[in-house]
Amino acid sequence: MTNKKTLKEILAAYDRQIRKDMGFWIKYRPSRWGDLLPEKYIRPLLTFIKTKGGKKFVLIFAFLLSLVFVGVIPTLNFIWSNIFRIWWILLIIPLVYWTLAITSVYSKVLVQVFFDFSRAVLRELK
Fold this sequence. Notes:
This protein has 126 residues and is mainly alpha-helical. The chain is built from 4 helices and no strands. The chain has helices at residues 2-27, 39-50, 52-81, 83-125.
């Protein structure tokens, strides 16, 4: 019997926590953010939104705000969290390029010197 009561108490505690958290999200949902404004600003804001230009402004503002939160902020977060990796890429690509360029130039010169030297040695052996 005590195990059942303990289980009921645990479930009741979880239920209270869930209700408390959901109450917070319901109380402060975006449709209620107007309640956070002072009363003297709500009426002019609502009359502005009811006009055609106001509706267009609200839609464009919501679109731009969503683009910022969906696109710009995660991109900046990605760049900031990977800045050192990006820095390594910006450092390694030129280093690899110049290493390949210098290696190819000097290897070509060394091959030409080796062939000229071997031709000279073979002429002397004839």
